[in-house]
Predict the 3D structure of the following.
Amino acid sequence: VTRSERSPVARIAVDLLGGDAAPAVVVDGALRACEADPALVLILVGPRPVAEAVVSALPPGDRHRIVTRVVDQVVSMADAPSRGMRTDTTVRSAVAAVVEGTADGMVSAGASGAAVTAAVHGFGRLPKIRRPALAATLPAQSGPVVLLDLGANTEAHAGVLVQHSALGAAYAQIVHGIAEPRVALLSNGTEAGKGDRPRRSAAATLDARRVLPHGARFVGNVEGYDVPLGGRADVVVTDGFTGNVLLKGVEGAYALAAGRAAVAAPGVPRAAALLGVGGLVVICHGNADGTDLASGIGLAAHLHRIGAVSRLAAAAPDRIEVPG
Amino acid sequence: VTRSERSPVARIAVDLLGGDAAPAVVVDGALRACEADPALVLILVGPRPVAEAVVSALPPGDRHRIVTRVVDQVVSMADAPSRGMRTDTTVRSAVAAVVEGTADGMVSAGASGAAVTAAVHGFGRLPKIRRPALAATLPAQSGPVVLLDLGANTEAHAGVLVQHSALGAAYAQIVHGIAEPRVALLSNGTEAGKGDRPRRSAAATLDARRVLPHGARFVGNVEGYDVPLGGRADVVVTDGFTGNVLLKGVEGAYALAAGRAAVAAPGVPRAAALLGVGGLVVICHGNADGTDLASGIGLAAHLHRIGAVSRLAAAAPDRIEVPG
């Protein structure tokens, strides 16, 4: 919990070099975010000329809201995630800004693997949490649906699915105010016994043991259509490979239904919160545009203002046991 | 290759008791299929009164096109797939009708696990094929996209992904007339090295060895949105768990975009062909309606008329080696 947690000011570190169309889209996103939120302070992490482009585009009275943290190297999508551990990369420096207390949270549209690695090393994992999870919220007709993991881990593991069920339930309570979230596992059928081995094992644990935060309950399996349509679960848990494929498939379907060949589609979140680490991280889609970056920065500011990280740390881990 | 393969007549066995809303939707689907295709003969597999409902609803001049194969037991969604091996079930009897030569192919909207088990036992697998795959075709703007597996196997395995790549490529050539299909693995990013271990291993094999039918080529990874949007691959290969989740997610997104809470959506196929077994099997969605059943019967008739099963057997397996 930082000094400013109850303050309306939110100081968000932004990775200027993360994303397919960086730095242009990040500059655009930073400007949009500043315009939308007068209490926002941005720590721009990257090359000085890029940061100065943001400063010079702001009205003079707003320029004090920009802090520059000069870093010139980037982790590209083609690099191994371990490159995120290099202290000279923008994503690692953005994490360091939070660790040092000069930022309240960070946002990157760079390679998610590098961001996750940097976050785990910089912030550490929450107690008992084996792997962090990327969580996004889809606005279904019946209310928000929290979907996780979206790619922090690609291998399915029963114990991790159980932990992510608890983290997702706590996130739904804290961020969306759903007092009694219904938690489901994503599977290839709703009948008990559907799914591969990790899914069946996780379901058995969630059925048998109290591993979810108080108020949350496990409702069994849901299927792919329950994520966009909602109604059957408030939190849908899967491995990062399947979650990533599903979210992008839903996104493509919305785009096609709207008659566009572009992938950005209303109804699909373009920013995800990293749950299970001891700091505030929001990761945007690699092909994010300025609007997406601004919404990611806005999400980070909101999560900071409600104290999401410390409340998640307080709510979830005590109840999570690690099976398997 | 059956006697009638070059004939326009197609004799399709239909599981009267398969599907969430059976037998009513199957009766409806059978009637629609007969009306749409004058050269269709249906072998209705199930209780005699249900079959008689179809016969009595047909014009007298068409009633000779219905053959009844009386079976009174069903495999429910809640049963283990091995129940599909019981000779007294409708799905098993429908397979037997094809094995005996009284039908050219079969259609069921029952539990896919039971249908797959019955088909493997009744028809056998094609040479060198370890596991069959369920394949469906999505009508993307740029042309058809064949997606497999949709749930015949829920565990990802590199060798199976490679075999399914070859089967999917042959299916695109034979059924959709795509001479040089682009084959891709579904992953959580397009960069080389993305995906879990089975995906990375399968990509290495597809890159290094000639395992696809002549004309087909491996184009690397695609992401979730490439399935509904098309354009990057003609054949998209994944494990049955992920494929099932993705197809249903796309379906839900289309339904939501169309302002409906129903899951049936235009643009998403509701019938899939079982590839890799020595007989013709089409499996419809468990919540199929009469229109879906009719389209599944129509797909089976079409696959029979183009000799799909024998051509798949001739095209794919000779080139498939089994890594891992």
In short: Residues 1-6 of chain B have pLDDT under 50 and may be disordered. Residues 185 and 229 of chain B are 15 Å apart (CA to CA). Chain B touches chain A through 50 residues (CB under 8 Å).
